[in-house]
Hints:
By secondary structure, the chain is of the alpha/beta class. The protein has 13 helices and 5 strands.
Amino acid sequence: MINEAKSNEAHVTxxxxxxxxxxxxxxxxxxxxxxxxxxxxxSRVASDEYRATxxxxxxxxxxxxxxxxxxxxxxxxxxxxxxVEWNNIPQSFRQAARSAIYQQTxxxxxxxxxxxxxxxxxxxxxxxxxxxxxxxxxxxxxxRTISNYNYNCSSAHPANEQFRKRFxxxxxxxxxxxxxxxxxxxxxLIGSFENALEKLIRHYTFLGVTEHLSASLSHxxxxxxxxxxxEYRENVGVERGEKTLDSQLVKKIENRSFNDKRLHSLISRMxxx
Length: 273
């Protein structure tokens, strides 16, 4: 249960976050934009806003968004960390969720479940009429796509040979790239960008970006009443392939990531001073 005793501490106002201007830019209502900022913007969220004594937080690890590093930080900050196996997501998530839910009903402890699970697995909480408390970190769609391709081609990934046979080039990979990979994992299908913001407000308490990782972790710790989260750099991929990506390939990625790009831009704005 989220602690209702919220801090009265005033945080520094971000001059880049005018709800009226942002609402016009992102083509949503001013009320919705203001509610989104109140929910997630570091300059508008009080310290301990989302502190809890007993909880199960779902932290969705979108591939190649500093997940290994963030996972180490969360492991130190929460009482219990439950990792979901990447190669057995549905069963591993159910096991982790059932264990965490049961344990927090027995004793006041803060649990976090992290892994490559997504909206389908998260429905376990809705199906049992339990509110979801979620967090995730996004990344520029172009950078994330290239990083994900390079990682899957490298020896660090167990199935790299099969992947390289299926996608011998970055262009072949981009041609089969699903639309809005990040939003779909975090929220499932959306009917509009406005719908995406509504679902985030309803189910999430934290959104960060890899490009402002230190500030994102700082905000997570402050807003959720956690010990200071240390920033690590683990499993950082080695760049491969083109130094300068062909503009047509960039356009193809962006065409398949229209809403991902908009959401990433909006969240990034919240962390700019």
